[in-house]
Amino acid sequence: MIKKYISREIPVSEILARTDAAKSGVEETVSAIIADVRANGDAALYRYAEKFDKVSLNSLEVTEGEIEAAFSAMDPEFIAVLREAAENIEAFHRRQVRNNFIINDRDGVVLGQKITPIDKVGLYVPGGTAPLPSSVLMNCIPAKIAGVPNIVMMTPPARDGSVNPAILAAAKIGGVTKIYKSGGAQAIAALAYGTETVMAVDKIVGPGNAFVAEAKKQVFGKVSIDMIAGPSEILVIADGTCDARVVAADMLSQAEHDKMASAILVTDSEALADAVSAELERQIPLLPRADIARTSIDANGKIIITETLDEAIDISNEIAPEHLEVMVDDPFAYLSKVKNAGSIFLGKNCPEALGDYFAGTNHVLPTSGTAKFSSPLSVDDYIKKSSFIYYTKDALGEVADKVHLFASKEQLGAHAESAVVRFK
Prior knowledge:
single chain
C-alpha cells in the first residue's frame, strides 16, 4: 500500500527522503571486472558471457547479416512507428545544434568558438526482460546530428547468442556503426579501454543496472560519461478534477521499471489521494510486471497532500524529479514556477510514456535529484567546444603591459615576460 502524507504534518526531510539501492559489494565486483577486461580483453568478455549471459559466443561482433535478418523479421507496423519516432527525435534535437562563432569587433583581434563532434561514442543498451529500442534512438540520433562518426553499441546477448531484434532494428534506423554482444560492467570496461575486437571510445552513454552505473563511475576520467543514472522516478502534480485511473496508470508507468523506482503524487485534494490509492491497488495485479510495481509502490511510492498547488510545485522543486507531470487544466500557468525537473509533461493528456517513445524530447534524464543542476541528454553531450584567439602584433602591443601587470600580481614571471618579450 502506498504511503500517504499530509505535508504540513510531516517533516519535509522525511517526505523527500529517497531510498538508496543496496550497493554492498558492487564497487569491489565492478573494479575486479574492469581490471580483468583491461588485462585479458576479448577473452574476459567471452568468459563473462558464459558466466552472466549463459551463452558460449563464437564472435563478439554482430554481423550485417544478423542486423538485416532482424530488421526483415520485424513487424512492418513497428518499423513504421520506429521510423516516425526517429523523425520526431531528430526534429527536436536539430534545434539544439550549436554553431561556430567569431568576434572581430576590435582592430587586429579575432576571438571565436569552434564546435567539434566527439570522435568515438559508446552506447550501452540493456537486454533482459525489458529490452529498450527506444534508448537506442534517444542516445544515437543526437550523436548523429552532432556529427559523431563512430557510434559503438554494446548489448548483452540472449542464451542462443542472438541480440533482441527490436534493438537491432532501432540501431539500423538510428545509425549505429558497430554492435557488440556484451553486457554489464565488462561491456563498459571494453568501451573505455578497448579490446582486440572492441574499439575504445571517448564517451559512454546509456542506461543500465547498478553494476553498469558503477562501472561508468569508475571509468570516468579515462572517458566521459553522460550521467550516473539512478532508479526511474515520476512525480505527478494533480488537482481534484483529475481522473484517479489516469493518475494511477501514469504512476505505474514508472513503478514497473524496477523495484527501486519511485512514483509520487502531490495533490491538493484528499479525495483524489484516496481514489488514486485505491486505483493503484486495483491496477497493480493486472500488470505483466506486477511484482516489480508492487515492490516499487510499497517501498518508494508516496502520496503527498498539500493545501495549494503552489505548495505542490515547491515540493516538486525540492524533489527535482526525473519526470514531472503537471495534470491541471492550465499547466502553462505553472510552467515558469517549475525550477527542477528532467522532463515536464503538461496537462491531463500527456502521459510520461509519450516522452519515452514518440514525442521527440529525450528520455535520458537526470535522476536522484540531479535535475537541480543537470539536463536531459542532448546534442551538446556529443560535441566539444574550443575557443580560439588571434592578435596582430600591434593589437598585442596595446595590451601587453596590462597582461604583464596581471601576471606579475600572481607572481608568475614567465607569464609576465611572455607578454612583453616580443617588443624587446
